[in-house]
Amino acid sequence: SGLWALGGWAVGAGGGQRGRSPLPAFSKRRLGFAAGLECDLATNVVGQPLVRQQVVPAVREFLQNPHPAKPLVMSFHGSTGTGKTYVSSMLVRYLFQGGLQSPYVHQFSPIVHFPHAERLEQYKENLKHWIQGNLTNCGRSAFLFEEMDKMHPGLIDVIMPFLGPSWVVYGTNYRKAIFIFISNAGGELINKMTLDLWHAHKDREEISMQDLVPAISKAVFENPQSGFWKSGIINDSLIDFVVPFLPLKHHHVKQCVISELVQQGLEVRPGIVQEVADSIPYFPEEEKIFSSTGCKTVTSRISFFF
Ligand SMILES: Nc1ncnc2c1ncn2[C@@H]1O[C@H](COP(=O)(O)OP(=O)(O)OP(=O)(O)O)[C@@H](O)[C@H]1O
């Protein structure tokens, strides 16, 4: 995932105001964003129709409600390179002027922002103040937590109170925020269920959300390596949408190669597209159906072929 450094810990009320946007975040006209987002997702995100089906209506409904009962909390799960960061950055681009660079979008990565386990208490305090301060400044803020599986499990406890319905304090409405958690947690399970479908000669998109979502929640909650480990987030149903990202097949990787070539202004030669897609590892070992790294290494591989 791309790591997006914060402009330092300007903690406290109004913290994080790095160059005010001339437009209010989430201006009314942006409510019409959903059609654009839907098309952008359909055109540019390959092999993830379930994501589109969940994310677009979820965000649309949330924004149309002037008095949401709780913040919108989505958790993106899947193995590497399947598009979790890509989709979240696309989403904030539609919602906030400047996208990920907007002063109302806050991105956290455990390696960048919480690297030292012994400083957990300090991180907890900082994170709480950061969220509070920024929501006081603008209730319609977005918080992206990357690599939740690498996040210290204790840190999540501090976020939990913000995710529920109860937080309207001193005039600050904490219910209008958007929280997105991104992790590889549950990825193996998603891959296994998708592979089972393939063995049963069914399409990967026939995966049952009813089976998948509780299984992911269970796997994530019970994994001591996961930032969600034993946290109340899952038990208290604080996550509104558990969004699975399916493993990508060879033809999806080819589409990624084509998009990348077009974006770099390079000629789209079928031979090159095939070669780049073939150079990526696939699993399972024998059948080689799904890309082990999704589309993640496509960009760097293309340079080898030119
Ligand atoms: N489903 C997809 N459709 C189109 N492009 C994709 C897709 N998935 C990944 N990509 C491409 O691969 C790059 C890396 O993907 P991304 O960072 O979103 O993966 P991720 O799921 O967040 O992986 P990680 O778990 O390693 O963070 C993206 O910038 C995009 O160019």
Automatic annotation (TrEMBL):
One of its GO terms (cellular component) is endoplasmic reticulum lumen. Residues 248-305 form the Torsin-1A C-terminal domain. It is found in: Endoplasmic reticulum lumen. GO terms for molecular function: ATP binding; ATP hydrolysis activity. Keywords: ATP-binding, Endoplasmic reticulum, Glycoprotein, Nucleotide-binding, Signal. Pfam families: TOR1A_C, Torsin. InterPro entries: ClpA/B, P-loop_NTPase, TOR1A_C, Torsin, Torsin_1/2. ATP binds at residues 78-85. SUPFAM superfamilies: P-loop containing nucleoside triphosphate hydrolases. Belongs to the ClpA/ClpB family. Torsin subfamily. This is Torsin. It comes from Falco tinnunculus.
